[in-house]
Amino acid sequence: FTGGASLLAVMLIPDHVRVSVYGNNAIAVIAMYMVGPLALRIVFRIFVVVVGFLMLAGAINTSIIGSTGVLMRVAEDGVLHDWFRKPQKRFGTPTRIINLVTVLQIVTIILSRGDIIVIGEAYAFGVIWSFTFNGLAMLVLRFRYHGERGWKVPLNLRIGKTELPIGLFSVFLVLFSTAIVNLLTKEVATISGVIFAAT
């Protein structure tokens, strides 16, 4: 979809306005440069905006569900107060955690002034470091957990009684390298990600 939209943007939107004027809104602008009556093009542009809104609404819903699950586990471990876990009387849902996540999302939008570059880079910072620490945790567990394993990452080298998880280490190394590159090359991501993590 992204490649097709980019190709259409290059084919339909004139060069002198494509990047300088419409660089951040190419999909909606494609509709305005199609052949057809102006009213139909405007309706199509409205359709593109509505579909984009619905897609983002689904993404926000998914993020609320995921964040709620993580915070429920954090509350079960005693990091968050049990007050957050108290279910709503009628529906039995963890409304306090859901409301907390929703308020934090709104505060994030307000503090970033809706700048999608800042939000996107901070998100990328969080995702890559989350994956990196998950990879590190798996590597540590590989050496600490001695019980039966249902499955192992391939490429294991056995030296005596010790097994070196080369495949798992390679996965961690790729994630760590990507995280370091992100840290050193994305100033906005680094600043906003570190501020978020510290907060």
What is the approximate shape?
extended
Adjacency order of strands in the biggest sheet = 1-2
End-to-end Cα distance, whole Å, is: 36 Å
Q: Give the helix level as a range of percent.
A: 55-70%
Order of helices and strands: HHHHHHEEHH
Beta strands, count: 2
Number of helices: 8
Low confidence ranges: none
What proportion of the residues form beta strands (DSSP E)? under 5%
SS-based class? mainly alpha
Mean pLDDT: 83
Biggest pleated sheet? 2 strands, antiparallel
What is the CA-atom radius of gyration, in angstroms? 23 Å
Explain what the structure shows.
Helix content is 70%, strand content 4%. The longest helix is centred in the first third of the chain and has 39 residues. The mean pLDDT is 83. It contains eight helices and two strands. With 199 residues, the protein is mainly alpha-helical. It has a two-stranded antiparallel sheet.
Can you lay out the helices and strands and say which pair or pack?
Elements: H1 2-12, H2 15-18, H3 26-32, H4 38-76, H5 95-111, H6 116-144, E1 156-159, E2 162-165, H7 166-185, H8 187-198
Antiparallel strand pairs: 1-2
Key descriptive features of the protein:
mainly alpha, 70% helix, 2 strands, 199 residues, 8 helices, extended, two-stranded antiparallel ribbon
Brief rundown of the structure:
With 199 residues, the protein is mostly helical.
